[in-house]
Automatic annotation (TrEMBL):
Example of a GO biological process term: proteolysis
Domain named C2: residues: 551-675
Residues the record marks as active site: 140, 311, 343
Family: Belongs to the peptidase C2 family.
Cited Gene3D superfamilies: 2.60.120.380, C2 domain, Cysteine proteinases
Stretches assigned to coiled coil: none
Record-linked InterPro entries: C2_Calpain, C2_dom, C2_domain_sf, C2_III, Calpain_cysteine_protease, Calpain_domain_III, Calpain_III, Calpain_III_sf
Record GO terms (molecular function): calcium-dependent cysteine-type endopeptidase activity
Matching SUPFAM superfamilies: C2 domain (Calcium/lipid-binding domain, CaLB), Calpain large subunit, middle domain (domain III), Cysteine proteinases
Name by which UniProt lists this protein: Calpain-5
GO CC aspect terms: cytoplasm
Lineage start: Eukaryota, Metazoa, Chordata, Craniata, Vertebrata
Length: 701
């Protein structure tokens, strides 16, 4: 029975176009969505909740770039016409595709799946986190990310596109060409990686990642495609789960140090963390965790509870589990915060409370256990209560799928994506590699990006990413740069590059990771992000992504001062630059009927106005607002006026008039508010604190 038929369109302002879709839903069947023109490929989704995940970001409309120019469709067609199996010239079956230098594991034989079993398949009984087992590589980080991916249909169908078409078809064996393709998100775009199906084996067994079922090959093939992208299999020996999660989703990974908070001591802090983890999980994000190893000897050391240090675990479920049985469970409604994980080794580990066969499960009804999929199997997957999780695990990675879809019922983010480079030049005004803020003389020579926060307070997500250099490790160039960024609160009308450090309101950590992330609450105002390498004079490319509640109009500041134009001769050119910093006002007159006021300040110079946000219900507003003026007429005065915000008409509260001369070296002015005009004794209630900084060198501020 058909329950619904939809025709809808998605407006794509970022591409100045729109996409039209049909959707149909049949009882107990997947929600089927397809584009009107067939230009965007969408598979049926087994979980209707995954429908919004397909539209969760604008990247689905982006073109996919073929890696090394290899086009899957044309290569497969060529092999089918020649009745030959594909042999990848870019990633050949040689030791160089396995190792950086010398062979470390002995004789390797490359075999196709048909040589390893009679009936190979991509998937056997669907895709599952249980399909993956780590092989002879230290890539538990990658396998853990794959386990998380396997639990999200909408996501793995992006990584494994048109999987039904790629599956072995015994009815049309002549169509099989020994070629596959997979997609990964790298440095701002989806990359399509083509591979042949020859896999490294020893003694007739797969050496690296493999499945429970000997005839299931999706995990081994995805691993090979990822190894090709990274240069060789050995490039996967040791890595960062956060990077793999981003590569699988195009999302943003937030590493969290669980030792920094009070999660083990304070229930409230622990509950807040659980709600954050639950929200990421329910909105389709991927999660990983680990127990930090502090020494080399600690790596893969097993704790008494069965958990392993220095080992990446995939989080496969996050739930609030109802305790009790029968009607008691329904009416009492006591719930326990629970989290489920999987060990990439596929072996039983956790032996504490809520482990597979523990007594605690008797507190949960049979129907609840079935809903949770609780099994007593040595499959490496296990449940823990969140309190124990915080007790043992030290590191957590939340990979958010940043929702930029206008169709979603969930929170929608506005995204700005900026590409840039750190490049070293001897000329300070052209240099773009100044190092971190420790190097104060050169820090502001880095690239600068300005954006606005227009809400009273906004949560901003910022991710800085550098190019993955693992593929260059064979040439001794595989080390990442230590990167990070600072956020400076600047003048509300700043449109040229900063030349003096202002107010730092946030900083990321500096680490030689592929990406760094910061989540920050910022109040209304204008801000500049300065992405940097830790040390000066280093060079490289970067990708900066900024997510805000409302459009932030992010752009790079490229000019150091107002440009000279053909009109400069007749209109003049600035002789001075003045920064005005209005700190606060005290003792303002209560103009509202409730005995208070809602003041804001306007700063004016040579016809340009800068207006601060309104401060509610206060006679002592802490304005903390700046403006910068490039002044062609140095003798013109600077006006600072305070108004009270009203529904019908704002009322004047007083003003201050300053000259902003070069000779004014007073660091802080505290002056009485005055009325407009030149009348005598025109003082009004209130004092205003203002700082001025004026220079005749336009690149000093």
């Amino acid at each position: 029975m058909v329950t619904g038929f939809l025709y809808f369109w998605v407006n794509c302002p970022f591409k100045n176009t729109s996409a039209h879709f049909y959707a149909i839903h049949i009882v107990n069947q997947p929600l089927l969505v397809w584009p009107q023109d067939g230009s965007i490929e969408l598979n049926a989704l087994n979980n209707p909740q995954d429908a919004h995940a397909v539209f969760s970001d604008r990247s689905m409309f982006s073109s996919v770039k073929p890696y090394e120019g290899q086009q899957f469709a044309s290569l497969r067609k060529q092999c089918q016409q020649n009745r030959s199996l594909f042999e990848d010239p870019v990633f050949p079956v040689v030791d160089q595709s396995l190792f950086y230098a010398a062979n470390r594991i002995g004789k390797v034989t490359w075999k196709r799946p048909k040589e390893l079993c009679d009936d190979p398949h991509l998937f056997v009984n669907g895709i599952s986190a249980h399909d993956l087992h780590q092989g002879q590589l230290g890539n538990c980080w990658f396998v853990a990310a794959c386990s998380s991916l396997a639990s999200r249909e909408a996501l793995w169908q992006k990584v494994i596109p048109d999987w039904k078409d790629q599956e072995w078809d015994n009815q049309k064996a002549e169509n099989y060409a020994g070629i596959f393709h997979f997609r990964f998100w790298r440095f701002g775009e989806w990359v399509d990686v083509v591979i042949d199906d020859r896999l490294p084996t020893a003694n007739g067994q797969l050496i690296y990642c493999h499945s429970n079922d000997s005839n299931e090959f999706w995990s081994a093939l995805v691993e090979k495609a990822y190894a090709k992208l990274c240069g060789c299999y050995e490039a996967l020996d040791g890595g960062n789960t956060a990077d793999a999660l981003v590569d699988f989703t195009g999302g943003v990974s937030e590493p969290m140090d669980l030792l920094e908070g009070k999660n083990t001591q304070e229930e409230e802090a622990r509950n807040q963390l659980f709600e954050r983890v639950l929200k990421v999980h329910t909105r389709g994000g991927l999660i990983s965790c680990s127990i930090r190893a502090t020494t080399q000897a600690d790596m893969e050391a097993r704790l008494d509870c069965g958990l392993v240090k220095g080992h990446a675990y995939a989080v496969t479920d996050v739930r609030k589990v109802r305790l009790g049985t029968g009607l008691l469970a329904f009416f009492k409604s006591e719930k326990l915060s629970m989290i489920r994980m999987r060990n990439p080794w596929g072996q039983k580990e956790w032996n504490g409370a809520w482990s597979d066969s523990s007594e605690e499960w008797k507190r949960v009804s049979k129907s609840e256990r079935e809903k949770l999929g609780v099994t007593v199997e040595d499959d490496g997957e296990f449940w823990m209560n969140f309190e124990d999780f915080c007790k043992y695990f030290t590191d957590l990675i939340l990979c958010r799928l940043i929702n930029t879809s206008y169709l979603s019922i969930h929170k929608t983010w506005e995204e700005d994506v900026m590409r840039g480079s750190w490049s070293h030049q001897d000329d300070p005004l052209r240099n773009r590699s100044g190092g971190c803020i420790n190097h104060k003389a050169t820090f502001l020579q880095n690239p600068q990006y300005v954006f606005d926060v227009t809400n009273a307070e906004d949560e901003v997500l910022i991710c800085l990413q550098q190019q993955d250099k693992r593929a260059q490790s064979k040439d001794g160039k595989g080390e990442n740069l230590a990167i990070g960024f600072d956020i400076q609160r600047v003048e509300l009308n700043r449109k040229y590059r900063m030349h003096s450090i202002q107010k730092t309101v946030g900083s990321s950590t500096y680490i030689n990771s592929r990406s760094v992330f910061l989540r920050k609450e910022l109040k209304e105002g204008r801000y500049v992000i300065v992405p940097t390498t830790f040390d000066p004079s280093l060079q490289g490319d970067f990708l900066l992504r900024i997510f805000t509640d409302v459009p932030a109009t992010c752009k790079e500041l490229t000019l150091d001062e107002p440009p000279q134009t053909c009109w400069t001769g007749c209109c003049g050119y600035p002789k001075l630059v003045t920064q005005v910093h209005v700190h606060r006002a005290d003792g303002l007159k209560a103009q509202d009927s409730d005995g208070s006021c809602d003041p804001y300040v306007i700063i004016m110079c040579e016809g340009e106005k800068v207006c601060s946000p309104v401060h509610k219900n206060t006679q002592t507003p802490d304005f903390d607002v700046k403006a910068v003026f490039y002044r062609k007429k140095p003798r013109e005065q600077i006006f600072i006026r305070i108004y009270n915000h009203n529904i019908l008409k704002d009322s004047f509260m007083g003003q201050v008039v300053l000259t902003g001369d070069l000779s004014d070296l007073q660091p802080l002015h505290t002056v009485h508010l005055r009325d407009k005009g030149n009348r005598q004794n025109n003082d009004l209630p209130g004092l205003l604190s203002v700082s001025l900084n004026t220079s005749d060198v336009l690149t000093n501020i």
